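User: Second chain of the day. Same drill as before.
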Amino acid sequence: MAKSKAQRETSAGGVIFRRAEEGPQFLLILDGHGNWGFPKGHLEAREAPLAAAQREVAEECGLDDLIFRGDLDVIDWYFRTSRSLVHKYCHLFLFESPGAEARPQLDEGITRCCWYALDSALQTISYENSRHVLRKAGDLAQILCREEAPAPES
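Assistant: Same format as last time:
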């Protein structure tokens, strides 16, 4: 089947960071296929990508304290189901989670939620297109952490 005849799907997800003394840490999830990535999922009817990303992160990781920090990218890939070729687009957003505990949504096949320093997260994540987005998120999170750091006491 030609790629032009692919069925289109749209999803949204979040790249989540938290602040730590050694620098920002990033949340990755381990899915039921053994791949490390970002929490993400399909948009519901008439749902905006940002709202879907927030909902999916809350559902898949239990994080309820998300602070929206910016748009990151839209990644796309092709995959085959038993019936058709699918061209999937995923809108990714940067969120900060100041203190909520991440818990995997076991009934959806998410088996782990782990925080990583940027370099470790880049080595752990399974997909190159996600690695590209993670690098961008790392740059933005480091800027936010520097800009919003408390002023040194004099």
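DSSP finds three helices and seven strands in the chain.

User: Great, on to the next one.
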